[in-house]
Write the structure tokens for this entry.
Amino acid sequence: MIIDNDFSGDPDDLFQLVHHVLSPAVDIRLIIASHLRPGDPMDPGPETARNARAVAADVFARMGLDSTERIYEGAAEAMVDTTTPQVSAAAQAIIAEAMRDDVATPLFYAAGGGLTDLASAYLLEPRIGQRLILIWIGGPEHDGLALPPMDAMPIEYNLLIDINAARVLFGAPDLTIWQIPRDVYRQCLVSDVELRKRVASCGALGRYLYEEVAYEQQRVHDHGLEVCESYALGDSPLVLLTALRSTFQADSSSSSYEERPTPELTADGTYRPVRGARPMRVYTQVDVRLMFEDFFLKLDEFTRWQADVSA
């Protein structure tokens, strides 16, 4: 699989990265450290992709991993239109991995942010579209499935990072898409006491993860906004839908989705129905019990193993 996330932004991506690394069922070939939109309050930049790479490398160091050559810095900026790729080493690495003929297992592209690097790779080599499954955390609610939350951003957060890239991939006729839209990734709530008792208690790595969330909560408070006793780890479904599939008829069988014709994404971030379009999965519910309990227990096991090794 290939992981793609904006690691210098919301700390939910750090939980996803650690969880994926601790999951033996997946073979992580590449990690793409992608950019945020200009002026993002979590990292106003300017070099957010470079910052993301540094954060991912730091997580590796905290876990005792030295395979940082698998971490690629993505494009520095969004695509300027739907026909011009952002050429980068990351895009070329995506193409090389997707075009391999020496593996029989499916290739999942697990994206928790913008889609610049995959869309650029697709424009450079369209054949990759039929050789991978894109699992994307992003996009607004679909009509008939859910309503947007109160005071929702006019354009969903991850989509806003690079609307042109998402438009390219939704328009790719042979690309399989599994989408976890905003109404579903907002389901992925953990309480503060869960994070304190199940994460912060797990050694230096757990304390680091907890403190990253606590910092964001404090930043929200300092801006005069209400701080609740929960936090959305909205990128964690990327682990659920890949590492935690069922053994027989392998699939994300404890989560629910609808198959719908893939809509066109418009320039203003809305969906436009396309008659006869290829089907896509739109998830409507994810198994948060399995997802988070698996993470808590793997983190605890890893902490105990680290302690034994260093003793």
